[in-house]
Each structure stands twice: as C-alpha cells, then as structure tokens.
Design a protein that fits this description.
Elements: E1 8-14, H1 21-31, H2 40-47, H3 56-60, H4 64-69, H5 73-89, E2 92-99, H6 111-128, E3 132-140, H7 145-155, E4 163-169, H8 181-190, E5 193-198, H9 205-212, E6 218-221, H10 229-237, E7 241-244, H11 246-251, H12 263-268, E8 273-275, H13 287-298, H14 302-315, H15 320-328
Parallel strand pairs: 1-2, 2-3, 3-4, 4-5, 5-6, 6-7, 7-8
EC number: 3.5.4.4
Function: Catalyzes the hydrolytic deamination of adenosine and 2-deoxyadenosine.
GO cellular component, one term: cytosol
C-alpha cells in the first residue's frame, strides 16, 4: 500500500514537537531572538531526539528550543499553519493538534491570545488545503493543578469553534489523575472532550485511573496496559481508543524494539487503536513513516488500514458533518 497517497487521520500530534527547523532560524532572525546557533544542521540536532534516548524526560528536552520562539502571535500562527501544510502534503485529511498554552505566555501573551493565534494558523491552512484541524489544549502535569483552570477557562469560548478537548501531558508519575479530578470535571461540564496521556512510561494503572477518575474517552499512548490487566480490560470494555505513536515510544523506551510493540496485538484483540506521529520533528518522522513501520513489521492488510482509519474517525472529536466527510474518503 502507498500510505503517502492514502487518506490518513492523526489524533495525537504536538505543535511544539513538530516545528520546521528552518522556521526556528527564520523567526529568530525576524524577531531578534537569541538562539544557540543559526546553522540548520546544528538546529536539527537540538530539535531531533536521538534514536537511543534514555527516557521520556530526555526526549522532552527537545522542546526547549521551540519554546524560545513560540512566544508571539505571528510565530504561533505560522507554526500552526506549517504543521497543517505538512500534514496535508502527505494526505492527512483530519488532524487534532495539541499544545500547552501556558508554555507560550513568557513574553506577555494572554492564554486567550495564544489559543487564538494557533486557531488562526489552523483556519488559514483549512482555507487553502483539503484538511480539517481541531485543537486539544494540554495542561502540564509538571505545573500546579491551579494552573489548569487558566487553560480551561481561556479555551471554553472556542469550544465547537476549533477547540475540542482537554489533555494532561508531560512527565508521568504514579496516581497523577487524583490531583486533576476537579479541573477535568469542570472542563467536561463546559463541553470539553477528554484525552489523557497515560501508560506511556511503565504505569499501566494510570490508564485505569484516567478512565475511571477523569472519564477519559481516549488515551495518549497507553502502551503499558499490556502489563496491567484491569486497565487492559477497562480499555477494551469501554471502547477507549489508544492514540499510539510507535517511533516516539521506541525513543522514550516504552518498548525495547518494534517487534515488541503491542499495537497489532491490541488491534487484533479488539482494542481500538489509532496511529500517530506524536512529534514530527522531535522523532524526525511523518505519519506515512509510522504506517510503513507498523504494516511492514506486522504484515497488516488493507482491511486493517480501513479498520484503523474508521476507528480513528469515530474516536475523533470532530462534529458529525466532518465525520461523514472523513468516512467518504475511503468508501
């Protein structure tokens, strides 16, 4: 199968992990921002995580350089537009982009301005390319619980107008869900959908907590339900879709090698999975790459492709009109 030409859906893609390296240099020059180098190869080395990353925390260090640049409205709009453009060029027809607004207020932007700027870039790309985008607002688990209310309140007026869901991300510790029960419940009451990073770093029980305590409809990664029977059974019973990211999970040591990656096992056992990049630049990949890796290593078929595609449509936080359009791409 030629996956570059086939329509694809991406439900788990971080904005600040998918910035073009040349854009970092361009914006630094335009905005007089001091960055460690203006050499494109050196910038790439700072932005792309090594294949032999030791941990998730080492992987996350690659977000520091984009964070220096993504502090004004023009830069945020451009970077969002370019991510949509890159996705469209490999025939991604729908994408949910996620980012943590509070990482982009260091130079005076309000949380609302940050969200509006990213939405502007998404909508500009939609007017040019055959792609639809929505935005997931991430709250950082490394920040205070109180800070998550800032994100939830700032984003609520954009619900059903580009913003669709709330997320918790960053370093994963045991039992993080308990701390965030109240803000996530508030977000749900406003109409946010819920997807939670969990089970990425060896703690399968966090997936169980994310579903039972936070009412997560999707799980970011979820690899370690393989080692937690009650989480595995709950994901399967509740039809919770896993947003799986093979190359990223290899780099962060969620798995030792691709042969041990559980996506195919989950899929064959009736668990709903979607295939995603996580971070296009940090992992130096695109979604076509991820499809080729999985389908070549596990001898999956066109039927498997269609099942994963349609499961991704149903799991998306898109409206019904958009879902109908997405279904028709493969009919």
């Amino acid at each position: 199968m030629n996956f570059k030409k086939l329509p694809k859906i991406e439900l788990h893609c971080h904005l600040d992990g998918s910035v073009r390296p040349q854009t970092i240099i361009d914006l630094a020059n335009m905005k007089n921002i001091d960055i460690p180098s203006k050499n494109i190869d050196e910038i790439k080395n700072m932005m792309v995580a090594p294949k032999d990353c030791k941990s998730l925390d080492e992987y996350l260090k690659r977000f520091e350089l984009p964070g220096l640049i993504m502090q004004d409205e023009d830069s945020l709009e451009r970077i969002a537009f370019e991510l949509m453009e890159d996705a469209s060029r490999e025939n991604i027809v729908y994408i949910e982009i996620r980012f943590a607004p509070l990482l982009h207020i260091n130079k005076g932007l309000t949380t609302k301005q940050v969200i509006e700027s990213v939405l502007k870039g998404i909508k500009k790309a939609e007017s040019i390319y055959d792609i639809k985008g929505n935005l997931i607002l991430s709250c950082m688990r490394t920040m205070s619980v109180e800070s998550s209310y800032n994100v939830i309140e700032a984003g609520k007026e954009y619900l059903n107008n580009g913003v669709v869901a709330i997320d918790l991300c960053s370093s994963e510790n045991k039992q993080f869900c308990e701390k965030f029960e109240e803000p996530i419940a508030l977000a749900r009451s406003y109409g946010y959908r819920v997807t939670i990073h969990a089970g990425e770093t060896g703690i399968g029980e966090n997936v169980y907590d994310a579903i039972t305590l936070l009412k997560a409809e999707r799980i970011g990664h979820g690899v370690f339900i393989k080692d937690c029977e009650k989480a595995y059974n709950l994901v399967k019973k509740n039809n919770v879709t896993l947003e799986m990211c093979p190359t990223s999970n290899l780099q962060t040591k969620a798995i030792k090698n691709i042969e041990n990656y559980p996506l195919n096992y989950f899929h064959k056992d009736g668990i709903k999975v979607s295939l995603n990049t996580d971070n296009r630049t940090v992992s130096d990949i695109d979604l076509t790459n991820e499809y080729n890796i999985i389908f070549n290593n596990f001898e999956m078929s066109e039927h498997d492709y269609k099942t994963i595609y349609l499961n991704s449509v149903e799991a998306s936080f898109a409206d019904e009109n958009t879902k109908d359009k997405l279904r028709n791409y493969i009919k």
